[in-house]
Amino acid sequence: MAGRPTLSTEPRLARRIALLSFAAFASALSARIGDPLLPLLARHFGLGVAAVTPTVSAFAFAYGCVQLAYGPVGDRYGKYHVVAWATLACVVGALGSAAAGTLGALIAFRALTGMTAAALIPLSMAWIADHTPYEGRQPVLARFLSGQILGLASGQLLGGALADLVGWRGAFLFLATVYAAAGILLAREVGGARGSDRFPRPAAAAAPFLVQMRDVLRRAWARAILAWVLLEGIAAVGAFAFAPTFLHRRFALSLGAAGALMSLFGLGGLVYALLSRRLVARLGEQGLAIGGGLLIAAAFIALGLAPRWIWVAPAALGAGLGFYMLHNTLQTQGTQMAPASRGTAVGIFATCLFLGQGIGVAMAGWLDEHSGPRAVFAGAAAVLAAVGASFGLALRWRAQEAAADAGVTPARGAQ
Prior knowledge:
By secondary structure, this protein is an all-alpha fold. It is built from 17 helices and no strands.
């Protein structure tokens, strides 16, 4: 790690991370903007809500599946370059979604958007990990993820507001504009770099894809992290995507109001991003994992049992804080699963997360129809509490094992 630039000594690095955060905002906005549109799309196409949920899950499945390609591409051709051009390519899918004349076409363009957006957040995280030491990486990643958090919050808020004001096509046109702005700024950063500002290309050809993938999957700890993030995606995002529809039905809120309430999830995430350095120092990774899982579980139970819509606000805020306590800890561990194949490792991590999201959205729709909305939130709460507890206890066990090998007493949050 010696000689590696840090945010405090390299303003250029801070600027480049800020641009990556803008791309992360666009990607997360794209993932969540369709959630509050589901009732509107159901009415437009004359179908039930469950029949139009593929407009959300298609993005997630496509996003997850192509991660296995983007990781090695980023390792071979340069992660920042790939992020810049993929962001511009996202404009095509967003414009196609706005112009779609049939449900099938809309699903196809949403899948295309997911395929191109897939490069943005995982390769950005891998690039940041390449340029920051592990000891200080979690707060830096939390700061970068503030863009993603804002995108998640704005996706449901803006999706609901635009649905009420200009319809679902207007929501996708807005998304195309955001992608275009982020892509142009990233491309200018890459194209305008001169001299010492140039982005270094990989020093040597990356190992073949299957070799990199084997390097990741042969590690038992990496396999455990991937299983945890798959379950997290199924439980957390499945319930989260269903929440605006639940609020619209139960409390007769407009789609805009339902999206605004759930945007407090993002505010909870921003609270975590702002306090991440203090929380990491006070709780350590183990405390963040266990506490985050319990907090989001409690929040989802409160959401499902809320007697009035006003009670949804603190539940959404708590869910956001708990989710990012748990998820950022998983992400930080994910960037260190296989440092020699970091792009591929983070790509596999994102594959599991987004495949989980696609499965979770479909399961939430099925549970709602067959067991009612409370089953969606109760099931998510049980899974997330188990993920947080088992991950946190495993981190504690690894820290104790490492300390025993070194003959020292482990400090709070030790790896």
